[in-house]
Amino acid sequence: MIWTLVITTGVTLLVSLVMPPNYTAETTLVVNSKSVDPVSGMVVPSMLLVPSYLPTQVNIISSHSVALKVVDKLNLASVPSVKEDFIKDTDGKGTIRDWLADLLLKHLDVTPSKESSVISIDFDSHDPGFAAAVANAFAQAYIETNLDLKNEPVRQNAAFFDDQIKVLRARLEKAQAKLAVYRRGDTHNAGGPVPQYPHAVGGGGMGGCSANHTNTHHAAR
Questions:
Q1: pTM to 2 decimals?
Q2: How are beta strands 43-45 and 34-36 bridged, if at all?
């Protein structure tokens, strides 16, 4: 399907530039993203918490970055006749991918439903097969982009914790090295002479010394 599309893409794009489209291909997306209400703790559709959610998704679908993914998915920039049209239309200025993306967006219509979470993607073209392929490619590119946007914070958090683990590991290794040095020094001292303490008169060991000190203190009173 894609290889047949690539062969006929050059003629299709040129006709789309000079002739009004005869076909409109439509594909629909059901947006079912849910969030947890911070007050009630209930799981609710995120568009109820953020009224601009669906319009935001529409903007993503019709964005230049998503259109570039469509160009790459359908290999539109690799068609020789398309390259010739690009040079004629732009004098070789810019990139063929950007030119194709802008061209596709001119024939794209993205509409959110007023009563549900459904988004319609319509693409107009003189060729019905090409119109259907582009509409479906926009839907696939949007899904991939949406997943990337959701996973990006996870990747950033993972990178942050990786950095923190490296710092903590370095501190642990440094502390372990200091402990090893301390233990080597303590072992060396343990083999030396045992210090001798003088015995107080009338007592044996440290207990006698403490008792004599206490008695002296009472005598001073």
A1: 0.60
A2: antiparallel
Based on the structure, what is the number of domains in the chain? Answer: 1
Strands (E), the chain: 23-30, 34-36, 43-45, 108-112, 118-125
Can you tell me the distance from the alpha carbon of 116 to that of 114, in angstroms, rounded to the nearest whole number? 6
Which tens digits make up the pLDDT trace of 90-124? 888 999 999 999 999 999 999 998 888 899 999 99
End-to-end Cα distance, the chain: 111
- Which CB contacts under 8 angstroms, 24+ apart, belong to 172-178? none
Q: What is the 8-class DSSP label of residue 45?
A: E
Q: 126 with 15: CB under 8 angstroms?
A: yes
Domain that holds residue 109: 2-152
Note whether residue 184 is domain-resident. Answer: no
User: Could you say which DSSP state residue 5 is in?
Assistant: H
